Amino acid sequence: METIMYLVRHGETDWNSVRRIQGHSDIELNELGLRQAEQVAGRFRGEKIHAVYSSDLCRARDTASRIAQPFNFTVSTHDTLRERCYGQWEGLTYEEIRARFENQDEAACGIETFECMQKRAVSALTELAKAHPNETIVVVSHGGLINSFLHFVTSGEQGTGITRIDNTGITKFRYTDFWNVLHVNETDHLEA
């Protein structure tokens, strides 16, 4: 028994375009992000998909709804699929963070630990995979969460700090009793 999972990053937002930290902030897709969501939806039209899941944040949910539409699926949303919470850093650029919080540790700024986010990701995604034996599902989430999961599955060979996950990049996994990575950050649909 195996589950195939396509883990998809949401389309672009205005905050992505200027490298502003989003975290749990609920930022909508911009015009390019909406086009990317349509393009990634087109990528899945030829696939046999059994369910579509998403983070409850609108940038992921709106991307997922476009993927689900041709299949007449309702997107099931889960807050456990959210991006890492960045507390006081949300809404700021990396330069602004360095200037304002240079000597403060992350915990004092209300930032979720990497380990907590990764544990949340592994638990949520494994639960979804186990609920769909011998099926294929799409899960739309966020770059940080996807990379933390990839980091876990590959024992640190890929993922956080190593691998780039583009907006609507698709990373494909197979789950049996353990996880395998089949491909990382596929973006061919954006070149069409």
Structure description:
It is a single chain. The chain is of the alpha/beta class. The chain has helices at 14-17, 31-44, 58-68, 94-100, 114-130, 143-153, and strands spanning 3-9, 51-55, 76-78, 136-141, 170-175, 179-186. A six-stranded mixed beta sheet has the order 3-2-4-1-5-6, sandwiched between helices. Helix 2 packs parallel to helix 3 (58-68) and helix 5 packs across helix 6. The protein is globular and about 50 Å long.
Based on the model shown, name its key terms.
single chain; 192 residues; alpha/beta; 6-stranded mixed β-sheet; 33% helix; globular
In short:
This protein is α/β, with parallel strands linked by helices. It has helices at 14-17, 31-44, 58-68, 94-100, 114-130, 143-153; strands at 3-9, 51-55, 76-78, 136-141, 170-175, 179-186. The protein has six helices and six strands.
